[in-house]
Amino acid sequence: MTIRKGNVSSVKASFTRFLREVRRGHEVIILDRKEPIAKIIPYQEGEFENILVHAAAESPSRLKFLKPKKLSKKTDSLKILLEDRLRRA
């Protein structure tokens, strides 16, 4: 079995092609800034027979009516973003 790799943007742009690779038995690792974040593996019969899938409680279109919550303390979003990027580099 061969492992294929693709960054988020290439997998998003060519999702069908990556799924075709999975159907052929290959694993696909998705990278975000060279860091592995997910793996798509071929489905094997009987592997997920105990999984329950629940229907959504509400339609996703209702999300546009949600109001953002106010933070209880001041947050420096830029600082947090830059720290995260440095950590990932």
Overview features:
3 helices; YefM-like fold; 19% strand
Molecular structure report:
The chain has 89 residues and is α+β, with helices and mostly antiparallel strands. The protein has a single domain, classed as YefM-like domain (YefM-like fold, 3-Layer(aba) Sandwich). It contains 3 helices and 3 strands. It has helices at 8-13, 15-23, 77-88, and strands spanning 3-7, 27-32, 35-40. Strands 1-2-3 form a 3-stranded mixed beta sheet. The mean pLDDT is 88.
Supply the number of structural domains: 1
CATH topology: YefM-like fold
SSE sequence, one letter per element: EHHEEH
- What is the annotated CATH architecture? 3-Layer(aba) Sandwich
Mean pLDDT: 88
CATH class: Alpha Beta
What overall form do the CA principal axes indicate?
extended
Unreliable segments (pLDDT under 50, ≥5 consecutive)?
A: none
Strand line-up of the largest beta sheet? 1-2-3
Rg from C-alpha positions? 19 Å
Query: In percent, how helical is the residue content?
Result: 25-40%
CATH superfamily: YefM-like domain
Largest sheet: 3 strands, mixed
> How widely separated are the two ends?
30 Å
Class of secondary structure makeup? alpha+beta
Q: If helices are DSSP runs of H or I spanning 4 or more residues, what is the number of helices? A: 3
Percentage of residues in strands: 15-25%
Quick structural summary:
The chain is of the alpha+beta class. 30% of the residues lie in helices and 19% in strands.
